[in-house]
Design a protein that fits this description.
Elements (H helix, E strand, L loop, with lengths): L6 E6 L8 E6 L8 E11 L1 H7 L16 E8 L11 E4 L2 E3 L5 H4 L10 E2 L18 E5 L3 E3 L6 H4 L5 H11 L7 E5 L3 H12 L3 E6 L5 H6 L4 E4 L13 E6 L9 H5 L2 E9 L21 E4 L5 H14 L5 E5 L2 H12 L6 E5 L1 H4 L4
Parallel strand pairs: 10-11, 10-13, 11-12, 13-14, 14-15, 16-17
Antiparallel strand pairs: 1-2, 3-4, 3-8, 3-17, 4-5, 5-9, 6-7
């Protein structure tokens, strides 16, 4: 049928063959008065996409169209939409709806709403499964649709909508800024954003990685020092140093966590946003008493934080390291496979949507 009755996307049909993407139509949720239809121009490829389609995070509804770093043009807006007009360049991240009535939503914590709906793979009240941005269009609630500043190119803005906000939000809430020493663990899709944001926020930034060949990039992204965690006793010279540590690696199950925790300043925090398939390793509770440190985690960020992040990126001319791939069945396979095997520097964005969907 085609738009507006159906959208078209590159979908995975089962998790056992997650590398096979098939182009097919799907039916979106019913259009409501605060919804926006977006004709997609670019979509970032996130580690979450891979963890979902390959079963690393468990079962997922199939067939599924992933992608939650979406940039495009608003082509239809509901009667009660006030923040976006037809023709605006907008973006959608990893959350597409919330109740907006609970205490979490009312306190700008809608990313922790118990009724939230993820951008893909989540059921709407009518039973429709949300589908993501490896597709011709997406239908989103206006609260989770963001105008993109003119200064940010679409292929660079896309990964900010998940990788960007996932790393920016916890640092904003932790008060990262001048006078703070911040360590970013893992220099990949998430971690390279962590370096960019921490530097832009005025902190003294350190990169911790088990890949020494990433030192040059880490310094270019804002790190004052590069610490190789492959070295024996790497942590000892850095005891009581960092006010905030952002762990972006998805290999935490292999970490000696007390070693990382020992580098925190008194009452410092180790904060996790990298989510591996496997459980975290056990360690003794006494690891917290050495320096009075704490450990936490977070889920994406709020609308006000997203707007602040995009404004900061425009103001500071933040330039993430992006490799683009034209969207197609082959392109989706190549991009997700590269992410799976850490073969990207440092983020993929799918582009050339007009060529893939010429009749929309």
């Amino acid at each position: 049928m085609g738009y507006p009755d159906t959208f078209e996307g590159f979908m995975v049909l089962n998790q056992k063959e997650w590398e096979k993407f098939k182009r097919q139509e799907f039916k979106p949720k019913q259009f409501e008065n605060r919804d926006i239809d977006i004709q997609i121009d670019a979509c970032g490829v996130c580690g979450s996409d891979v963890h979902t389609i390959d079963g690393g995070w468990g079962d997922a509804p199939m067939p599924l169209c992933v992608g939650h770093e979406v940039i495009g043009k608003a082509i239809k807006v509901g009667d009660k939409v006030t923040t976006v007009k037809v023709g605006d360049r907008v973006g959608v991240g990893a959350q597409i709806k919330a109740c907006l009535e609970c205490k979490n939503c009312k306190s700008d914590n809608e990313n922790y709403c118990p009724h939230q709906i993820d951008t893909y793979g989540a059921p709407y009240p009518d039973g429709t499964i949300s589908q993501g941005g490896f597709s011709s269009h997406i239908r989103a609630h206006e609260y989770f649709t963001f105008k993109i500043p003119n200064a940010i190119p679409s292929h660079e803005a896309a990964p900010m909508l998940c990788a960007g906000i996932t790393t920016y939000s916890p640092m904003l809430r932790a008060g990262v800024g001048p006078g703070k020493k911040v360590a970013i663990v893992g220099i990949g899709g998430l971690g390279h954003f962590g370096l960019l944001w921490a530097s832009a926020m005025g902190a003294e930034v350190y990169a911790i990685s088990h890949s020494p060949d990433k030192e040059e990039d880490a310094r270019a992204l804002g790190a004052k020092e590069f610490i190789s965690s492959k070295e024996q006793d790497w942590h000892k010279p850095w005891a009581f140093t960092f006010n905030f540590m952002l762990n972006t690696a998805d290999a935490t199950d292999k970490f000696d966590l007390p070693a990382y925790m020992s580098t925190l300043a008194v009452n410092g925090e180790m904060h996790h946003v990298g989510l591996p398939d496997n459980k975290m390793p056990p360690f003794a509770a006494q690891a917290f008493t050495f320096n009075g440190c704490k450990m936490g985690g977070s889920h994406i960020g709020s609308r006000p934080e997203m707007i602040k992040m995009l404004d900061l990126a425009a103001e500071k001319k933040i330039k993430p390291m992006i490799e683009t791939i034209p969207i197609s069945e082959t392109g989706c396979r190549d991009a997700t496979t590269n992410v799976k095997h850490n073969n990207v520097r440092f983020r993929h964005t799918l582009v050339d949507y007009d060529k893939a969907f010429p009749n929309r």
